[in-house]
UniProtKB/TrEMBL annotation, chains A, B, C, D, E:
It is found in: Carboxysome. It comes from the Bacteria. Transmembrane segments: none annotated. It holds the Pfam family EutN_CcmL. The keyword Transport does not apply. This is EutN/CcmL family microcompartment protein. CDD domains: EutN_CcmL. InterPro entries: EutN_CcmL (IPR004992), EutN_CcmL_sf (IPR036677). The keyword Transferase does not apply. Keywords: Bacterial microcompartment, Carboxysome.
Length: 87, 87, 87, 87, 87
């Protein structure tokens, strides 16, 4: 997984029907040499802009949505506690 | 997912029969430290050159085509709204 | 796999129910040109901060947890012996 | 997918029996910030040195070989037309 | 696949039971802009330190071991012939 900060919501009116109802957010990786890399993640646990989140990628993102047919490759699996300072 | 801009159509007359009828486009990643990385994506939702799109990669691309036997690893899943300025 | 050093524990109180009871740790890749890249890994073999570990990524991480439904994409599969000096 | 130029044939006399009869070629990514990255690809459509090809990676490479048991992670899926100038 | 040189053996006494009996080696990618990147690979064809090998990654590594439950993500699939000079 990677640690990323959610920096914006992504809107796509024209999209696959399989994605209806899903929330997409722009995330930026924090820490380490890949800091600043951006990806778009799917969120189903109620994360918001400014949150530092744990993001899973690849086929595991579909496991997070509990539907193996949805074509997403990155999803928020947890919101990192504010008390976690080093991450 | 990554955000990319579609910059050209890719033509390959000699190709796998499984790919007949599919449209391939050259895309360039926008934003973040991986900006400028290029990949070729499959599009089935009618995106065009100049559009900023949401691209899914890996096995999820086959989910977008709803056919697990097609050998593609990147597909457009949505066209980002023009009003989305920060992405 | 990659070799990484565990540098901290990651706490996420709000997370997917599927992750309850799992331990997440921040890891930093050691050696080679990707040194310093960070990822968050799941550990089920009792590794601790300061350990150099072997990390598997992607769908194989779910094999390590022996549960294909858990949405993780990186897991510790072994702790590298201290006598292994070059790695 | 990525666009790559085939630059050499790769010979491996000692290899997995599952790979017998398959042709492996060294490819170099063209265009974008990942230009110059090299990978070895499997070819079953008759591509040759100097061709610019479309390469699929990951589990989709096994779909190209139509055999999910062959341990390859990159395969040529098409030869890009010479008239495609910008790619 | 990538071409890598095997540079050391990796020992991990504390590891997943599923890995018992497997040999792990430290490998360094050769050639192209990703030269010098390191990964740990599983070898079942008898490769040794100093060999240049073909490495498959991701779910295909499990195909090389012919056991989809083993949590590895990189495996040697062939030893490159010494006469292959450009790779």
């Amino acid at each position: 997984m990677v640690i990323a900060e959610l920096i914006d919501t992504v809107w796509a009116t024209r999209k696959s029907e399989q994605l209806n109802g899903l929330k997409f957010m722009l995330a930026e990786i924090k820490g380490g040499t890949n800091e600043g890399e951006r990806l778009v993640v799917c969120d189903v646990i109620g994360a918001g802009i400014g949150d530092r989140v744990l993001v899973t990628t690849g086929s595991s993102a579909r496991r997070m949505l509990e539907d193996d047919l949805i074509p997403v490759d990155a999803a928020v699996i947890g919101i990192i506690d504010e008390s976690c300072e080093s991450v």
